[in-house]
Amino acid sequence: xxxxxxxxxxxxxxxxxxxxxxxxxxxxxxxxxxxxxxxxxxxxxxxxxxxxxxxxxxxxxxxxxxxxxxxxxxxxxxxxxxxxxxxxxxxxxxxxxxxxxxxxxxxxxxxxxxxxxxxxxxxxxxxxxxxxxxxxxxxxxxxxxxxxxxxxxxxxxxxxxxxxxxxxxxxxxxxxxxxxxxxxxxxxxxxxxxxxxxxxxxxxxxxxxxxxxxxxxxxxxxxxxxxxxxxxxxxxxxxxxxxxxxxxxxxxxxxxxxxxxxxxxxxxxxxxxxxxxxxxxxxxxxxxxxxxxxxxxxxxxxxxxxxxxxxxxxxxxxxxxxxx
Length: 324
What we know:
Elements: E1 26-29, H1 42-54, E2 59-62, H2 74-88, E3 93-97, H3 103-116, E4 120-124, H4 133-146, E5 151-155, H5 157-160, H6 166-172, E6 178-183, H7 188-197, E7 201-204, H8 210-215, E8 220-223, H9 230-241, H10 245-254, H11 256-263, H12 269-279, H13 296-323
Parallel strand pairs: 1-2, 1-8, 2-3, 3-4, 4-5, 5-6, 6-7, 7-8
Helix pairs in contact: 1-2, 2-3, 3-4, 4-6, 6-7, 9-10, 11-13, 12-13
């Protein structure tokens, strides 16, 4: 079962309020498919990447939170980049997670990503050790200096325990290879402060913020929910760019039940995305421990929210056809 939008227009979008997006606009935080035995499923990753790009994603973010980066090896991360790059070619950007709590290891992963063919590196704030802001800034500068890859900083203090404070972000924006931010800060004022004072390309990292952040000049989104509804996520941005902000808002709000069931119902987005993809017979596989799979009741709820959105899209597609 798939949402029946017409094929996505993959020409560049034109939100003139934002700087030119370095990695595209509609990015998917892609899950990492595994075999039933728990091994990396590169064939499944290629099939999923191809599906996402053909349905409107102009960028893929690998080995992030949704991609189970804490439980994949360095070699698996590199193999995933190579496989996805082979599958999508130059039709979409490929950004890969390299962040760890160790600056030296993060630099090693960044160099590995560059060699594997990534277009950019997603670098999360060092976690657990909770470094002060001067150390956070130094960490990102060392990583940015180490390779030729542009960086997307990943600000997600709810997981790392440390914020990239707005003033730190503003200073880091002066580095030529610090070009983007995946924003999971839940600080809308702080984000607007950085947007008003830098050319950083901000990407909403929380699906409920996709349209709101885009409306104040963000470059786009890095969406977990796009694993299952890539066309819908892309269409919200397209509608806004076309000047139909009311329709963009309707699309965003129609997705809220699915966003809530995937991202705010007590299970990690990795778990819910994989459960829903598996139910739709798409590449997914199990999650790696310590994560555990969604139960039957949770999966049924996800399917219900997905089907409700699919019904809405079918109905609106028919209405557009009749009025054409």
